[in-house]
Specification:
The chain is α/β, with parallel strands linked by helices and 724 residues long. It folds into 3 domains: 3-204, P-loop containing nucleotide triphosphate hydrolases (Rossmann fold); 205-452, P-loop containing nucleotide triphosphate hydrolases (Rossmann fold); 550-723, no CATH class. It is built from 32 helices and 21 strands. A 7-stranded parallel β-sheet has the order 3-4-2-5-6-1-7, sandwiched between helices. The protein has a 6-stranded parallel β-sheet with strand order 8-13-12-9-11-10, with helices on both faces. Helix 18 (392-399) links the parallel strand 12 and strand 13. Helix 13 (251-263) packs antiparallel against helix 16, helix 18 (392-399) crosses helix 19 (428-437) and helix 29 (573-593) crosses helix 32 (691-717). The longest helix is centred in the C-terminal third of the chain and has 27 residues, at 691-717. The chain is globular and about 105 Å long. The model is unreliable at 403-409 (pLDDT under 50). GO terms for molecular function: ATP binding; catalytic activity, acting on DNA; DNA binding; hydrolase activity; nucleic acid conformation isomerase activity. Residues 32-183 form the Helicase ATP-binding domain. One of its GO terms (cellular component) is cytosol. Residues 291-459 form the Helicase C-terminal domain. It comes from Thermococcus camini.
């Protein structure tokens, strides 16, 4: 074939390598099938065997035969980013996954996109693409976008590539809509043994890794958000535990743990708690069960005996029983071919189950911890981890059910189901590292973990909220609690007053107090750290109150994103200025009582992180410059009225905070007040490239707060003369 040597020359120029012998053999088969008039071809090759190069070869071949444009579909945005730089070295290639359709409209010979984005832009694409190449095509089995997109595009040819051989029957059924456009599927399968025969230099890995997302549906997302954002009233540690339980183990295990938490009094009776009770009364399969059904649609042991037994691991018994019920009901697998291996079985029952599995009578074993060690489970053809154990020992014990030293080389599949935009994906990097050291090819795991973590959930939510508000920022309280208090100061002081421990401790330190005195002392303790030093119990109580106001894992995600320069914040000048005003008024009252003409406060600290969140406005880092410019305009106007405010700015490395102290005085009604408020800004990254810009915003924000306090004071008490 003249085309392959020509393609090798292009590869040599672009990448400094050429096709391996086995890749040339696969390329010849593919070109022959196209020459015979096949219009719907899927090539299955092991991961690490260079599918991407063969995808490029297919595109180049079609373009050389007069095809106008090629659409390459990747399952994720990250893969679009990964593949685009490689493709464009060989052929003029556009990338489109943001939904603005620009790359589609430009005359690129090849465009890389996700099926979701292509479907959004499909009205502009009809008749545009002669051929479609689908990377990781096995995901089309459970992905509706592919089957909706291809009939709209009506290409001449569709070529799919996958590292995994799904059930041919299930695959053909799933792509029936594509088949109506381009004809019957032709499946070209090359396993490790075949490629090794073609090319003795090809070394297969011990196993392949595949990842299936356990997507939450709308009702599950609402429940998860109650836990993640800390909106469910209850103990903070319990909420964190319930969040992890729900994302990792699904509905049944979560509802079991939720019921226990309510019985123990760790969850407060509330409207949200009632909503969860209603959710738990339903019998719909959970996100983890749905993902497992997707896995078993692809790797179906009923249709492929080589995969038996499929072993499914979960850490919770409730989840194991839920899985069996979902498989029997959803996939119509006979009840006796699916068994659950838990501590509920006696030793004799376990032996009997495993004997049946070795005989081939049991096709699926769903196991909890009892199957991870000390039980002679037959070697699996497919192993599914529906949760990733954090313990390396447990991970290896599970993996040993798939990979054994004595086993002959065959295509083994290791599947992990993970819940996107939850903490569960945070454990994946450790799991991948363990797999690598065990000799498993992990190159297939090409995904952007950042897009799968809870931080992405938070970023998406901030974008949606600010867009809805038509604003550059949103308040922390609105984002986390779904609402924001009208008066954060009163909100916080009310929380302190509602704490019996705080009230009791305050009386122990300062004696019996009237209501007005209690409120005044509460304010002083919040803003004057020297008063907190009187009692460790007082500090501990305040910390517990602030934890109640700042529940959920979202708190840590905010901190992380701020440190990583993906979010930043400023304090609401309108609301925090009320606290500065309270101090001005307290000093004025003190001066009047003492018949003094002046007063001074050198100790007004806004340093409590949990308290300051009540006043925090959060924004995406790309808005930093714009917000600075808006603040500058306000500050210029106030400087003309009140004069400048002197600032002293320092970086506290220990607390990772920028500390700004403002100096100004205010004179009204013959009383001069000197005040020196100090503001702490936490999670400051000293090595940030945006360091100077962030400090600029912080200093503008402090001035804005102080100027607003002065304005309010003027409105109440008359003319102010301010000097630094």
């Amino acid at each position: 074939m003249e085309f392959i040597p020509e393609f090798n020359r292009k590869l040599e120029n672009a990448f400094r390598f050429t096709l391996h012998r086995y890749q040339e053999a696969v390329a010849e088969d593919l070109i022959n099938q196209l020459g015979r008039g096949e219009r719907f071809i899927t090539v299955s090759m092991p991961t690490g065997s260079g599918k991407t190069i063969l995808e490029m070869l297919a595109a180049e071949y079609l373009l050389s035969r007069g095809y106008k444009r090629i659409l390459v579909l990747e399952p994720t945005r990250f893969l679009c980013d990964q593949m685009h730089p490689k493709w464009k070295l060989l052929v003029k290639t556009g990338k489109e996954y943001e939904g603005n359709c620009w790359s589609f409209l430009r005359n690129y010979k090849v465009v890389i996109s996700t099926p979701q984005t292509a479907l959004k832009c499909v009205s502009n694409l009809q008749g545009e693409f002669d051929a479609v190449i689908i990377d990781e095509v096995h995901h089309a089995i459970t992905g509706k976008y592919y089957n909706e997109l291809i009939p709209e595009l009506r290409p001449k040819v569709v070529i799919g590539f996958t590292a995994l051989l799904p059930s041919e029957k299930a695959y053909k059924a799933s792509v029936s809509k594509i088949g109506k456009v381009v004809g019957e599927l032709k499946l070209l399968h090359y396993d490790f043994q075949e490629l090794s025969k073609i090319d003795s230099k090809f070394n297969p890995p011990k196993a392949l890794v595949d990842i299936f997302d356990s997507e939450l549906d709308e009702r599950e997302r609402k429940l998860y958000d109650l836990l993640y954002f800390g909106r469910l009233p209850g103990d903070a540690k319990t909420l964190y535990f319930l969040e992890r339980t729900f994302s990792r183990y699904g509905k049944k295990a979560f509802c079991e743990s939720f019921s226990r938490a309510v019985e123990k009094g760790n969850i407060t009776v509330s409207q949200h708690a009632e909503e969860i009770n209603g959710f738990c009364r339903g019998d719909e399969p959970s996100h983890k069960a749905r993902a497992l059904l997707d896995v078993l649609t692809v790797y179906n042991p009923e249709e492929n005996p080589k995969l038996r037994p499929v072993i499914v691991f979960t850490s919770r018994k409730a989840t194991a029983y839920e899985f069996k019920d979902a498989i029997v009901r959803g996939l119509k697998v006979p009840h006796h071919k699916v068994e659950v291996l838990t501590s509920d079985l006696s030793r004799e029952q376990r032996k009997e189950l495993l004997l049946r599995a070795k005989k081939g009578d049991v096709h699926l074993i769903i196991s909890t911890l009892v199957g991870e060690e000390g039980v002679d489970i037959p070697e699996a053809g497919v192993l599914v981890m529906t949760d990733v154990p954090r313990s390396p020992l447990r991970f290896y014990q599970r993996l040993g059910r798939l990979i054994r030293v004595s086993s002959p080389m065959s295509t083994k599949v290791f599947v992990i189901t993970m819940t996107p935009k939850t903490e569960e994906y945070g454990d994946l990097s450790e799991a991948v590292r363990n797999l690598y050291w065990e000799g498993v090819d992990v190159s297939y795991i090409l995904l952007n973990l950042e897009e799968k973590l809870t931080i992405q959930r938070l970023l998406d939510y901030i974008r949606e909220t600010t867009k809805m508000l038509n604003s550059k920022w949103a308040s922390y309280m609105l984002l986390t609690q779904g609402d924001e208090p009208r008066d954060p100061v009163e909100y916080y002081l009310s929380a302190l007053k509602s704490s019996e421990t705080f009230e009791r401790t305050l009386k122990q330190v300062f004696g019996e107090l009237y209501r007005e005195e209690f409120e005044e002392w509460a304010f002083l303790i919040v803003t004057k750290p020297i008063l907190r030093a009187f009692s460790e119990e007082l500090k501990k109580t305040m910390k517990n109150v602030e934890k109640r106001l700042n529940r959920g894992k979202v708190v840590r995600d905010f901190d992380r994103l701020i440190r990583e320069d993906r979010l930043f914040y400023f304090y609401d000048p309108e609301r925090l200025s009320d606290m500065v005003l309270m101090e001005l008024e307290r000093l004025r009252k003190e001066s009047l009582e003492n018949q003094a003409s002046d007063s001074r406060s050198v100790l007004l600290w806004f340093d409590r992180k949990g308290f300051l969140r009540l006043f925090t406005n959060v924004f995406l880092i790309e808005n930093l410059e714009s917000i600075i410019e808006d603040m500058k305009e306000k500050i210029r106007e106030n400087e003309e009225i009140f004069g400048d405010i002197y600032l002293e700015t320092n970086h506290n490395k220990r607390s990772k905070a920028i500390v700004v102290k403002a100096y100004f005085s205010a004179s009204a009604s013959g009383i001069k007040i000197r005040i020196e408020p100090q503001f702490n800004y936490y999670n400051f990254n000293e090595n940030s490239e945006l360091k100077e810009k962030k400090i600029e915003l912080i200093e503008l924000n402090v001035k804005d707060i102080c100027y607003r306090a002065m304005e309010k004071y003027l409105e109440k008490y008359g003319e102010i003369n301010s000097n630094t």
